[in-house]
């Protein structure tokens, strides 16, 4: 994604997730697992996709979203969008 450095993008995704999940952003890392570590359910994934799409001006493909396992996966998909 043009205009976003890797660290900058990761920081922005983590900040967005911390607001949505209402957890301290310092507890979220790139290798944090969405379900196991952050307790994101299927409705949460849908809401996160909508937030990411709006925040970054992208339209993430559903097939790729199904592959999300970690915060890093979100960053890689946004970067490639």
Automatic annotation (TrEMBL):
Lineage top rank: taxon: Bacteria
Organism: Pseudomonas umsongensis
Name recorded for this polypeptide: Acyl carrier protein
Pfam family, one: PP-binding
InterPro entries to which the protein is assigned, alphabetical: ACP, ACP-like_sf, PP-bd_ACP
Carrier domain mapped to chain residues: 7-81
Ligase in keyword set: no
SUPFAM superfamilies: ACP-like
Keyword line: Phosphopantetheine, Phosphoprotein
Record bears the keyword Phosphoprotein: yes
């Amino acid at each position: 994604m043009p205009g976003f450095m890797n660290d900058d993008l990761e920081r922005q995704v983590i900040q967005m997730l911390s607001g949505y999940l209402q957890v301290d952003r310092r507890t979220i890392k790139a290798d944090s697992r969405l379900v196991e570590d952050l307790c994101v359910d299927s409705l949460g994934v849908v809401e996160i996709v909508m937030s990411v799409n709006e925040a970054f001006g992208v339209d993430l493909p559903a097939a790729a979203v199904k592959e999300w396992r970690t915060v890093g996966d979100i960053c890689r998909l946004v970067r490639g969008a």
